[in-house]
Amino acid sequence: MKFKFCGDGDCPDYILAIIHSNLCGLSSIKLKSFSSRVVLLIINDTTVDESEFSNLFDGSVNDFKSAFECIRFLLLSAVRFGVTKDVFAVELQQLGLPREHSLALGKVFDEHFGSIESYLRKNSLYINKLLSANFVTCDDGIDCVTMRFKLSNCIDGSSETEKTININNTDIPILLRELKIIKAKMDEFDYGQ
User: Fold this and answer.
1) What does the alpha-carbon distance between residue 155 and residue 107 come to, in Å, rounded to a whole number?
2) Is pTM, for the whole model, over 0.90?
3) Which one of 13, 38, 144, 171 is least enclosed by Cβ atoms within 10 Å?
4) Could you tell me which of 105, 100, 70, 74 has the C-alpha nearest to residue 3?
5) Chain center to CA of 171
6) How far apart are CA 119 and CA 76, in angstroms?
7) Confidence at residue 65, expressed as pLDDT on a 0 to 100 scale
8) CA 122, 127, 133: angle at the middle one, nearest 5?
9) Per-residue pLDDT for 94 more than 90?
10) pLDDT tens digits for 151-174?
11) Which residues have a Cβ under 8 Å from the Cβ of 154 and sit 6 or more positions away?
C-alpha cells in the first residue's frame, strides 16, 4: 500500500514490525505521553535518557530505542509530507495500530505540527553550510583568483573545514553569469515561507 505520510510510498517494514511488536502493547494514554516526550526531545535536540522510558517497555532498552525511532520517523515524515491529522490517523490504522492509539498519535501530531515543521526547516539541507568566503588575487604572476571557503557540517563528517579553489581570471565572468542564472531560478521557487 502507498501512504501519504510516506510521500505516497510504501511504509518501511521495520516500522510495521515496531508498530505491531512495541506500540500496540502500550495503552493509548502511555503512547500519547511517550509521543509527546519524543516530540520534545526532537525539537530541543536533547539526548535521550533511556532509563526514563525503559519502564514502559518492561526494562527493555532495545524496545524503547526502536519505539522512539518509530515514533520519530512517523511524526517527522508526516510533517515533511504535510498530511492532515485525520489522514495520518487513518493511515496508522491501516498499518495495524489500534484506533485509540492512532487518534492519540494523531493528536500529538496535530498539537506539535508547527514546532516540528520549524525544526525541520531549521535543520534540513544544511550540509556544507558556508561560514565564510575569501577571494585573493595571485600576486606571483599567475592569472588566477584563489577562493577560500570555510564550511561547517560537512558531508565527510568533519565539523568545520576549509576548501581552496583556484580559478583562472577568464573563467570568473562565466562563473558569475552561471551563478546569477541559478539565483534567478531559485528565486522562482516558493519555499512556503
Assistant:
1) 36
2) no
3) 13
4) 74
5) 37
6) 10
7) 83
8) 100
9) yes
10) 887 766 667 888 888 888 889 899
11) 127, 128, 160, 161
